[in-house]
Q: What sequence folds into this?
């Protein structure tokens, strides 16, 4: 009997091993993961330089991990296993109160550091601050900066995870920008709103909700000295267009039991008055509802990622132009600001065009003022702010 059990164990193991190997060879490579909302590594290109440098081996490791059969399901199994062990996290994603998820591991831009190191490079943060100072000095029009918080910065009360790195990051930025008056501070306000139970950040994604974007709009308008023009909440009709949004934290964490988020759009009733173009193509309003049928529902706002998005009034009404160099946090903010300004949004994260010369683009688009919107994660990991001019 014992011999039969041993044989059955070996046979089952071989079936799994060779079954997965055969599936890996037969199944075509997937270029993109809808669940994780990211590109997957396809078969690496061979070269002598890549082989000798060791890069080829790293690329093959990533390739095997990304294209492994049943990857999405196995990520979920690992998530259940990790939580069962009492770890409270999986793949660097924390599980907090009320199903709140947050990434805790960031590639902080530290020289020679492994990806997903929980920390940040002080020199890089200071260089980013210097880039902001440099851009502000060169611009001949008002310049404002909104550095948006990560979930771990705003929803820290949902987690037992220490907030030392978050606080140190914010303090380092404040110290580096001391004496400047161009910063729009939103993190303390949104943290207060979150602690009061308001739905200002998604639970399964790293972005703020439309309500969170509205609070940011209010703070921006105050910073502009336009407090009297702020539109109250009751000026909009709040429509829940989805109750099944699963964001990037949910995908990475594999915590399948966490309930989905609700996505709202705020309608004022004059949306058809605006002409909105994305890379020269006219959009059907601020919201591309076709994304509600996809995994990446956040791209509902301004049709997702484009290099240049413009918003003007169809009537040709003369209004001040606001230039917004930005990342994706600006997309749900734009419909609020469009009630007061013509907008030009430039994707700072673009791989096709470099928008770091703010004074050039401000002159090119005839901007009356500039509002830079960029999340702290990108401040830590990207070099865009360090190259501003």
A:
């Amino acid at each position: 009997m014992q011999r039969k059990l041993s044989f059955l164990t070996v046979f089952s193991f071989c079936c799994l091993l060779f079954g997965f190997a055969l599936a890996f060879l037969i199944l075509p490579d997937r270029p993109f993961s809808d669940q994780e909302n990211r590109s997957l590594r396809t078969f690496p290109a061979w070269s002598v330089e890549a082989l000798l440098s060791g890069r080829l081996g790293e690329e093959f490791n990533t390739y095997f991990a990304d294209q492994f059969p049943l990857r999405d399901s196995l990520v979920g199994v690992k998530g259940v296993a990790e939580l069962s062990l009492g770890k409270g996290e999986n793949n660097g994603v924390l599980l907090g109160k009320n199903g709140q998820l947050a990434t805790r591991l960031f590639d902080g831009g530290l020289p020679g550091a492994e990806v997903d190191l929980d920390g940040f490079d002080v020199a890089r943060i200071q260089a980013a601050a210097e880039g902001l100072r440099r851009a502000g000095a060169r611009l001949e029009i008002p310049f404002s900066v909104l550095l948006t918080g990560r979930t771990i910065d705003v929803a820290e009360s949902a987690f037992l995870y220490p907030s030392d790195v978050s606080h140190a990051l914010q303090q380092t930025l404040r110290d580096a920008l001391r004496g400047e008056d161009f910063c729009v501070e939103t993190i303390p306000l949104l943290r207060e709103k979150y602690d009061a139970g308001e739905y200002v950040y998604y639970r399964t994604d790293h972005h703020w909700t439309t309500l969170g974007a509205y609070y940011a709009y209010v703070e921006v308008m105050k910073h502009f000295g336009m407090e009297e023009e702020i539109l109250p909440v009751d000026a909009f009709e709040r429509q829940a267009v989805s109750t099944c949004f699963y964001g990037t934290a949910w995908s990475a964490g594999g915590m399948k039991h966490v309930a989905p988020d609700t996505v709202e759009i705020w309608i004022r009733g004059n949306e058809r008055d605006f002409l909105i173009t994305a890379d020269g193509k006219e959009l059907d309003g601020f919201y591309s509802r076709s994304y509600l049928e996809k995994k990446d529902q956040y791209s509902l706002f301004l049709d997702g990622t484009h290099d240049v998005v413009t918003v003007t009034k169809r009537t040709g009404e003369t209004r001040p132009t606001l230039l917004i160099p930005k990342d994706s946090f600006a997309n749900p903010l734009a419909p609020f600001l469009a009630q007061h300004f013509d907008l030009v949004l430039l994707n700072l994260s673009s791989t096709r065009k470099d928008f770091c010369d703010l004074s050039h683009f401000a002159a090119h688009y005839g901007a009356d003022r500039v509002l830079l919107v960029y999340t702290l994660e990108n401040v830590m990991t990207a070099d865009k702010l360090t190259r501003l001019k």
User: Anything to note?
Assistant: The chain has 13 helices and 14 strands. Residues 103-387 form one domain.
